[in-house]
Amino acid sequence: MPSLPALLPIIPFTGPARGGVTLPGSKSITNRALILAALGSTTVTLRNALFSRDTRLMVAALRTLGFEITANESACTITITGSGGKIPQREARIEVGNAGTAARFLTALVSLHPEGIYHFDGDEAMRRRPIGTLLEALEQQGAIASARAFPFSLKTAGLRGGNVLLDATESSQLLSALLMVAPHARTPLTVQLKGETVSRPFVAMTEQMLQQFSTPIVDYDIEGDATAASYFAALAMVTQGQLTVRGLNLSPSALQGDAEFYRLLAAHQLIMASGDQAVSGPKRSGFSADFNHFSDTFLTLAALAPLLNGPTRITGIAHTRKQETDRVAGMARELRKLGQQVIETEDSLEIHPRPLTPHMQIETYHDHRFAMSFGILGCYDLLKNGQTWLSIKDPACCAKTFPSFFDLLADLRGNSVLL
Predict the structure, then answer these.
(1) Are strands 288-290 and 312-315 parallel, antiparallel or unpaired?
(2) Is 29 within 8 Å of 210 (Cβ atoms)?
(3) Which of 95, 168, 202, 220 fits as disulfide partner to 174, beta carbons 3.0 to 4.6 Å?
(4) Cα four-point dihedral sign 28, 30, 31, 32
(5) Domains (ranges, CATH) in the chain?
(6) pTM for the full predicted model
(7) How far apart are CA 216 and CA 9, in angstroms?
(8) Is residue 296 annotated as a catalytic residue, yes or no?
(9) Which of 296, 367, 381, 394 is flagged as catalytic?
(10) Could you state, in chain order, the average pLDDT of each consecutive group of 10 residues for the chain (419 residues)?
(11) How many angstroms separate the Cα of 269 from the Cα of each of 16, 286, 380?
């Protein structure tokens, strides 16, 4: 795959998007499955596994901890031999980059060692992301942390069980991390929440996967990334096209809450969805929605808002200020740069469409969701001549979850019908 430039001009579609895409495997499911397989007692092959920066960091860390893993990127498979709840290496240095799942899940995982010492670090952005309340919960089980943020060292003593008090108001991953290791405590471990947690569907995902891995399995199929599907549903709307989105599970048994975005666009008739087909819908009206349960997709809607009639109000997103970047402030800043009127509160954005300002460069803040969301907006033929009017800085940040995103976008553009 050719490398991307530091600044990528987005070439608009001059006709309706046509064709199809196969979604990459879900990052959230891949990294949970890696942890759960490592904790198991058999050898498991993950199929349709995602190969991206975040999952590679997880695989590298598990190998550092002594787990046996083989990966076949061309076949999208990862095979891991479980150790029955034991951590093979007593001491290790673990690099988590800016991968929230790797950071929280691995911190809880190593706590199972009865006398381990583990040194954690991450990117500069990770040093501002929540981890302290998870460390406090692990200290209730006998661990000792050198700090409440990255970098830190963790002396572990295993999990003795009993009640653990956890504040997961800033990230559901803190709760998911404890839930995945709880079955391996010496006595039953119960997590009591201090306040509510955000993004509840991700906790439900963890609980469902714990049930799936509770009996020995050989193969495990990973769903296509529902968050990634949001971009192609949006592309169908932006270009008044029709796309086949292969791999999206919209059934009631689906693990990913972010599939709700697809349903939301369909409910407001921005798209018409049938099976794996996304077709541009009859309406382009702004609307209000609470994104607390599927907040990774709020940037997709916010980037589309300038093309809608009337204001769009997005609520339930305060916790996204502590993700890869402050997503609320960053989105407000970039939309204003494009000439939009934006009302920002701690927990919401209200976007009032104004004529788009062309020839703008979008800052991505090293955040893949900014790159992909505004990449879709740039596909709109604003100048009515197929000429670029929007460019994306640091497009390679998509490697975090979707390395081939802009290649797929280019392929779809080549299939679009010229007017």
Answers:
(1) parallel
(2) no
(3) 168
(4) positive
(5) 7-25+224-415 (3.65.10.10), 27-201+208-213 (3.65.10.10)
(6) 0.95
(7) 49
(8) yes
(9) 296
(10) 88 95 97 98 98 98 98 98 98 97 98 98 94 98 98 98 96 97 97 92 97 97 97 97 95 93 96 92 97 97 98 97 96 98 98 97 97 98 97 97 96 78
(11) 17, 11, 19
